[in-house]
Amino acid sequence: MSDVRHLQALASDIAREAGGLARQRRAEGVSLAATKTTIADIVTDADREVEVLIRSRLQAERPGDGFLGEESGGARSSTGVTWVVDPIDGTVNYAYGMPAYSVSIAAVQGDADPSSWTALAAAVCSPVLGELFTAARGEGAWLDGKRLAVNTETPAGALLATGFGYDPATHDGDLATVRRVMPLARDLRRIGSAALDLSYVAAGRLDGYFERGLKPWDFAAGALLVEESGGVVSRFDTASDRPMLIAAGPDLHERISVLLDK
Ligand code: IPD
Ligand code: CA
Description:
The chain folds into two domains: 4-147, 2-Layer Sandwich (Fructose-1,6-Bisphosphatase, Chain A, domain 1); 158-260, 3-Layer(aba) Sandwich (D-Maltodextrin-Binding Protein, domain 2), CATH 3.40.190.80. Helices cover 35% and strands 29% of the residues. It has helices at residues 3-28, 45-61, 91-96, 171-181, 194-202, 216-227, 250-260, and strands spanning 32-35, 42-44, 66-69, 73-75, 81-89, 102-109, 118-126, 131-136, 140-143, 146-147, 158-162, 185-189, 208-212, 232-236, 244-248. The protein has an eight-stranded mixed beta sheet. It has a five-stranded mixed beta sheet with strand order 12-11-13-15-14, sandwiched between helices. The chain has a two-stranded antiparallel ribbon with strand order 1-2. Helix 1 (3-28) packs antiparallel against helix 2 (45-61) and helix 5 (194-202) runs parallel beside helix 6 (216-227). It is globular. Calcium ion (CA) binds next to strand 5 and helix 6.
């Protein structure tokens, strides 16, 4: 098995196991552990427990690899490979009992910096639906074994998704962005998990996705899924604290970029 296929298999196994734990904890009842950057930015005990599980599995299998996780910070890599992990993406959905949350695991080569790393392998598990999206660099992307491809035609307008920052001060700007893009849209979704938004673009369930202010763990796995499904992912304003990410098939990506990249 090639290296990227090996990383993909490992990410997949751990994402499935972690998804099972998240689902079990949700069924038992979820309690808020803390708020983070703003009162809307929450973490539950399950986020932390799931990240501990993922980190310990990776540490056991590949002790020299680096780690960048939403809840427990980082560890430097001695192998060149770093794991970028969001234990529960869509924590607000999770806390409210909505099914749109996911476990997102990516292996990247290079520094733990999305502007310079090369993503190698990805797994996004949607535990409630029992779906596993995976990708390996240069080999493709799959949903439970079925090869994925982005949509390339949007004759009735594009089905788009976006998200909003937790800081209320960002809402006006994000809504202005939505207003700019809406002429391209047949409709707009706000699913609440960036990793699922990107997985759904890869699977052709959405035509495109854009959002400002994502953290590396929100999109590390999903961006590789989109690229390995024939889509384009770009980021701009990366020096700001709220870079914009756009993901779609090549033609739609270009049309969204023209509207937003100014
Ligand atoms: C959030 C989700 C949400 C997106 C936010 C993210 P979290 O991640 O991906 O869809 O709009 O920007 O922070 O906090 O649930 O892990
Ligand atoms: Ca997240």
